[in-house]
Amino acid sequence: MAETAVMKMPFQWEGTDRNGKKVKGKSMAADEAAVRADLRRQGVVPSRIRKESKGLFSSGGKITPSDIALFSRQLATMLAAGIPLVQSFEIVGTGHENAAMQKLILSIKSDVEGGSSLAEALAKQPIYFDDLFINLVEAGEQAGALETLLDKIATYKEKTEAIKKKIKKALTYPAAVLVVAFVVMTILLIFVIPAFEDLFQGFGADLPAFTRLVIDMSIFVREQGLLLAVIIGGGIGGFLYFKKRSRPMQHFLDRVTLKVPVIGPIMEKASIARYARTLSTMFAAGVPLVEALDSVAGATGNIVYEEGVKAMRDEVATGQRLQQSMENTDLFPNMVIQMIAVGEESGSLDEMSAKVADFYEEDVDNAVDNLSSLLEPIIMAILGVMVGGLVIAMYLPIFKLGQVV
Questions:
Q1: What SS3 state is found at 230?
Q2: Which spans in 85-145 are helix H?
């Protein structure tokens, strides 16, 4: 069955329905004959069927978290409209522009048609659907409120992805500017400084110390540039490799990040927002608190908070109140702890957690906007000092010569 799903290709078709009305759409099938047979079962007489071609610049099919969020929202909308689950998959899958997403959705549809529950079908795709997603879907199926839970999942995914994109956007700009500055400096050191060096050799006078330093840097980059590039590239590659695979290194980096001025508070607020949003979503779905904290831990996005929430889970499992276990971690502000305490006492933990999430999500938005405003002049100043310093170093001997003349 999985092999059949892999072999399916996208087709575009046009035809007329039972009422003689012209219709058109897309289908995933092994060949044109399969498309015709499927359309006839739907009461459509096809007039034209052609294989969908990929554009010259079309990306083949990387599935992003945004695709999963959109899939959840579309599926929830279909089910709320009374459309059967299998037919909903067909509509959402064939209408998706991402070929990889089409295959994924139609593969899940095949599993559901084969008798699997939706949660079981999603569990076969762990790369795209985490435990939180599967647990919520399973809770929705058992409670007979799948569309409601899918809607909550979509809202959760959209809000958490919005925070991630906001932070990435704030950090991308300064990183791009620094890369450009590094490239410009490298070009100046390799191609421009040597021309000035040849000019200065005819002066017959000692160069200023700053100018001599820049020329020595240029000579070093030209002679040892390849070795330097290999060392820097290897260092970056090794860092990224161990960052992804070494948990102690991840723990160290996450802990250090939380202590970095300006950046640290933003990452802390983002982790608290994800903690509260996930807790609200899981608890509203009727998932027991101890089981919910398992999924909450992995959703915080920071190993320090992940381990803290796991410690909370162990304490809650022995009868400790959530409020007290949060205090013991020393990771949450007093306001968050008190709001969670009110939610526990009033039986509205999901609502209070949602309010905490709303507050911190808005706080992250404001903090990131302020960070962007703060970084722009700083980055421009750094760029000016780096490039301007090289230019001044090269013109100092000329100014000195002009004073002598």
A1: helix
A2: 85-94, 99-113, 118-123, 131-143
How many residues are present in the chain?
405
Express each pLDDT in 262-278 by its tens digit. Answer: 888 988 998 999 899 88
* Dihedral angle computed from the Cα positions of residues 397, 398, 400 and 403, in that order, rounded to the nearest 10 degrees: 170
H helices of 144-246, where?
A: 146-187, 193-200, 209-245
Rounded CA separation 252/247 (Å):
9
Q: How many CA atoms lie within 13 Å of 313's alpha carbon, on the beta-carbon side?
A: 19
Alpha-carbon distance 375 to 133, whole Å? 36
Q: How far apart are CA 289 and CA 63, in angstroms?
A: 31
The pairing of beta strand 45-51 with beta strand 9-16: antiparallel
Q: Residue 12: what are its φ and ψ, rounded to 5°? A: -105, 140
Sign of CA pseudo-dihedral 127, 128, 131, 134: negative
- Model confidence pLDDT, tens digit, residues 171-192: 787 788 888 888 888 888 888 8
Which phi and psi (to 5°) does residue 250 adopt? -60, -45
CB burial class (10 A; 0-12, 13-18, 19+) of residue 26?
middle
Which is it for the CA torsion 94, 100, 106, 108, positive or negative?
negative
Report which of 50, 40, 47 is spatially closest to residue 22, judged by C-alpha positions. Answer: 47
**What pTM, to 2 d.p., does this model score?**
0.68
Other residues' Cβ atoms within 10 Å of the Cβ of residue 246: 12
Tell me the pLDDT band of 204, cut-offs 50, 70 and 90: low
Q: How far apart are CA 227 and CA 125, in angstroms?
A: 43
Question: Which residues partner with 48 through β-bridges?
Answer: 14
Q: What is the pLDDT of residues 16-28, one digit of tens each?
A: 887 778 877 777 6
CB 289 within 8 A of CB 322: yes
Find out whether 135 and 147 touch, Cβ atoms under 8 Å. no
Q: CA 294, 298, 304: angle at the middle one, nearest 5?
A: 110
Tell me: the pLDDT tens digits for 350-359? 899 999 999 9
Q: Contact at 8 Å (CB) between 118 and 102?
A: no
